[in-house]
Amino acid sequence: MILSKQEILERIKRDSLVSGAIDIASQVQPASVDLTVEKVFAFESEAGALDFDNSERVIPKTSEIPFEKDWVDLKPGNYKIRFNEAVRLPAGIAALTTARSSLARCGSLVHVGWWDPGYEGRGEACLVVGGAGLKLKRNAKVAQMIFVRLSEEARELYSGIHQKENLLEKSRQPKK
Fold it and tell me: Which of 86, 93, 118, 132 is the most interior residue, by most CB within 10 Å?
């Protein structure tokens, strides 16, 4: 079952389901939460590598693309973005993320993986810019996170390498 706005708001207060939002009142939708862009990164020349047990996994290096006067102009291609919002998923909740329709109407998409119960951190996504490019403002709403209640609480929680990713860095920065 997908969580409603009312349950999302209750869980934000009770469980810190989402933190770091720019304006939570405007970001919580009837059945999702809008995710906003904190940073944009370009992929470096090193290719990524994936295997079965992650013993040979290589995550490509990236370099941050600075915003100029709160804007960044992106040419068609693939970029990594980091969201402002952090999530804390309890044992009974998972999440998925999809691009906002306005981003798709600009010829661009966001690709994000599944968010397992127990994940805590600020996510990153692949931003695919199509068409003639995309002008993106800092804190732009680009994706929607949909929370799904499991049929029963997960007995094992997420414990991968991305657990609590990017939380420390964000906590050191002053809130704008």
Answer: 93
**pLDDT, tens digit (0-9, with 9 covering 90-100), for 102-128:** 999 999 999 998 999 999 999 999 999
13-27, 65-79, 131-145, 148-162: range with lowest mean pLDDT? 148-162
- In a domain, residue 114? The reply is yes
pTM for the predicted model, two decimal places = 0.90
The Cβ-side half-sphere exposure at 173, using a 13 Å CA radius, reads 10
How many folded domains does the chain comprise? Answer: 1
Q: For residue 79, give its domain range.
A: 5-43+62-150
Q: Is 99 among the domain residues?
A: yes
Record the tokens describing residue 39, joined without a space: 């940073």
